[in-house]
Amino acid sequence: MLVVRQNVQRAEESADQAPARTLRADERLAYHYTPVHKLIIPSDYQKRVQFCEWYMHSVVRDNVFSSRIISIDEASFRRRGIRNAYNHIWARNNPYAVKQRNFQHEFRCNIWMGIIND
Description:
Protein name: PiggyBac transposable element-derived protein domain-containing protein
Structural class: alpha+beta
Low-confidence stretches: none
Oligomer: single chain
Mean pLDDT: 70
Radius of gyration: 25 Å
Strand content: 25-35%
GO molecular function, one term: nucleic acid binding
Largest sheet: 2 strands, antiparallel
Distance between the termini: 71 Å
Strand order of the largest sheet: 1-4
Number of helices: 2
InterPro entries: RNaseH_sf
Helix content: 25-40%
């Protein structure tokens, strides 16, 4: 009976590894995708560029400008949980894959922090 269990266990382990062996035999490698923030409104990019240009000009005009800004950061906990960082894309060459995320369209809990004056 012990021999039968060992054979069944070996067969199960072999079946679990078969897809990876097949992909490697086809010279494919596992690549991770990079999550990126989706720009929902087409004008988002231009607005961000305008803000950066405004900030740079403000710092040039007033060298203590940045010390009067509240710096903020936040952490989000989504209802879908944490993304699986072990997902892969199997390919012969790195596709530099990205996955857009719709952060504005889902429920989440934010934790916010602000720092004033350096």
